[in-house]
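User: You have something folded?
Assistant:
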Amino acid sequence: MVHCIVTIMADAEELILSQAQELRRGTVVLACLALLEAPQYGYALLVTLNDAGVTVDGNTLYPLLRRLEKQGLLTSDWNTDESRPRKFYRVTPEGSRVRTGLVREWEDLVASIARLTKENR
């Protein structure tokens, strides 16, 4: 009986982690647009995101940065002044407008979820 309860709890925890990852996936774009008001290179952005609790790995972040750049939301420049060249990303004016809209959407969504979860307690 105890083994069954432990197994059920472990399965639930695994499901929570999996679903939480899905929730976070959509927030990485907003987090990048928020953080890249000041230029940053990819690895520094990766560390900043992870330190802030927005867990993302390089295999996810770098393609995302390239996609956002193709969409005109970011711009990039190579800094070759140091021994190791680094590509710095920065939000464009269009990226700032999109960020503002996404923040508004995020706040509305948080308020809606708060109402729904409060009603169901």
Helices lie at 2-25, 27-35, 42-51, 58-70, 93-119. The longest strand covers residues 74-79.
